[in-house]
Amino acid sequence: MSIGEMLAATVPMVRTLNLEYLETTPERAVLSLPDQEEYRNHVGGPHAGAMFTLGESASGAIVLAAFGDQLSRAVPLPVNAQIAFKKIALGPVKATATLGRPAAEVVAELDAGVRPEFPVTVRIQREDGAVTTEMTVVWTLRPNN
């Protein structure tokens, strides 16, 4: 089972919004949010809450892809998130997430007994390529006790 299939099966909001996992690797995750009338805002684009969920879901997918081998000793958790809406999003949108620090550096901190924090950057784009939203989600790997 792929990371996208696993998240779709275990995270109800992913299914609610019909998010599609297009690519999930330790280098990047790409998800799409289809244009759905029931999730549109007052200007006809995806609601801000749907956009946030798309971006946070993309960030979580790359975290699982990059650190899935650490799950026996640590749980990934979002620490905080910042989102900036740049342009009106209309129609389907796509989120691309990338790690802000090398995974090996994060794991080295975990090995040293430090609870690492690391940013994941997300860009959400319309079909025409325009960036509508930029987001940063800071994650941690909380060691299991």
Account of the 3D structure:
The protein is of the alpha+beta class and 145 residues long. Helices cover 30% and strands 36% of the residues. The protein has four helices and six strands. A six-stranded antiparallel beta sheet has the order 1-2-4-5-6-3. The longest helix has 20 residues, at 48-67. It is elongated, with a radius of gyration of 15 Å. The two termini are 28 Å apart.
Q: How much strand content do the residues show?
A: 35-45%
**Overall mean pLDDT score?**
95
Output the strand order for the largest sheet: 1-2-4-5-6-3
What structural class do you assign from the helix and strand content?
Answer: alpha+beta
Poorly predicted runs of 5 or more residues: none
DSSP helix fraction = 25-40%
Distance between the termini: 28 Å
Q: What's the main sheet like?
A: 6 strands, antiparallel
Task: Give the structure's gist in a few sentences.
This protein has helices at 3-10, 12-17, 48-67, 103-111; strands at 20-24, 29-33, 74-85, 93-99, 117-126, 131-143. It is α+β, with helices and mostly antiparallel strands. Strands 1-2-4-5-6-3 form a six-stranded antiparallel β-sheet.
Describe the secondary structure blueprint for this structure.
Layout: H1 3-10, H2 12-17, E1 20-24, E2 29-33, H3 48-67, E3 74-85, E4 93-99, H4 103-111, E5 117-126, E6 131-143
Antiparallel strand pairs: 1-2, 2-4, 3-6, 4-5, 5-6
Relevant terms:
145 residues; alpha+beta; six-stranded antiparallel beta sheet; 4 helices; 30% helix
